[in-house]
Amino acid sequence: MTGDPQAVASAPARYDRLVADPDAAGARYRLIDHPPEGRTDLVSALRGHDVAHAAE
Questions:
Q1: What would the pLDDT profile of 8-39 be if each residue is shown by its tens digit?
Q2: Is 29:22 a contact under the CB 8 Å cutoff?
Q3: How far apart are CA 48 and CA 37, in angstroms?
């Protein structure tokens, strides 16, 4: 998202949309804060799960 002011500004709205459905359904989940990485394989390692289970 770096370099695109509009994308950065809309990040909170995207986050709200991403968590709205699981929240409404009462789903249990955890948030893992980490700096932006940009590579699914590295982020999956941070999260401790297989790349095949990553949301892209």
A1: 557 788 889 888 999 999 999 888 887 777 78
A2: yes
A3: 15
The answer to whether 18 and 29 are in contact (CB under 8 A) is no
The owner of tokens 């995207």 is: 14
Rounded (10°) CA dihedral 37, 39, 41, 47: 30
Side-chain half-sphere of 54: how many Cα atoms within 13 Å? 16
Give me the sign of the Cα torsion angle 52, 44, 14, 28.
positive
Question: Tokens standing for 1?
Answer: 């998202």
What does the block give as tokens for 16? 């709200």
pTM score, whole prediction: 0.40
